[in-house]
Predict the 3D structure of the following.
Amino acid sequence: MSKKTLTILLGLFVILLLIAFLPSLSKRIKPTAEQGVLKAEVNFAPFTSQSINSFFIKKGAEERRFSKQNNSWQVNGYEASEQEVQNFFDQLGKSKAEFLVSKNSENHKSYGLDDESGTLLSFTQNGQTTNFVIGNTASMEGFYAKKQNSNNVYTMSGGFIATKLSQDVSAWRNKKVIDISKDQFQKVEILAGKNSVTITKNQEGKLEADVSGKKQTLAQAVSDKIFMVINPLVADNFLGNTEISEFQKSGGKTIVRISLNAGQPTELQVIKKDSNWWGQITGRETYYRFSDSKFADLLSLGK
């Protein structure tokens, strides 16, 4: 048998080996049609903000519990930002099981899925709770995940939820203070000591300012500036307990009272504190922090 013939036969043998072992190799790397993504143990598709009753995120001692009250979300007893919650579920819905990378529990630590480093993500739906563990980043927008009581580890792709999972409670809370449209607006009064500014909407829909007894029709740019502030007014963060106590004891607060076409006026109390403004809506137990530029603009309107 010639050398050329031996080379050809050897090549054919290698090809046959690859054909024989390729199916088993692919099973180890990626779910087959039978195993498929829909049959993977980690499947977030059934869990949406509309379909579940509650969920929680826990890593170590840090825990964020979410519950739905009258179709609105709360986080650790505070009003949650509907936008933050919906953005989380939007990203979660994009996350699909891509590869089954391990069936060995001894590998969980290297994937960030052990009890110490993993993040527990739990959903309650129609009285049934499903628990997942989220681990390390696997790619730019991917991560490792498994069902809590399973050894099977999957890489997930298509959704980026790592930032959301690491957010503290304040980042999940609703920072929208007021949201008043042009149609709802009737009047705003700004009372700072002996100084006062009253801005009203006339029959033509234009805004007029009364600054210490002097009346003037506001330019459109100034009117637009008002509605940019109050439609909506969003806080930068919340005050801590020590700051709340200081705010409550402080005198000389500036009052911003906004009247609508219907309903009771909304009254906001604020004080200047260093490079920020601290504030509270009268009658609410939430205390906010605003950036200097945001509130300086509001309090200078009509001057």
About this structure: The CA atoms of residues 80 and 173 lie 4 Å apart. The chain has a mean pLDDT of 85. The first helix runs from residue 3 to 29.
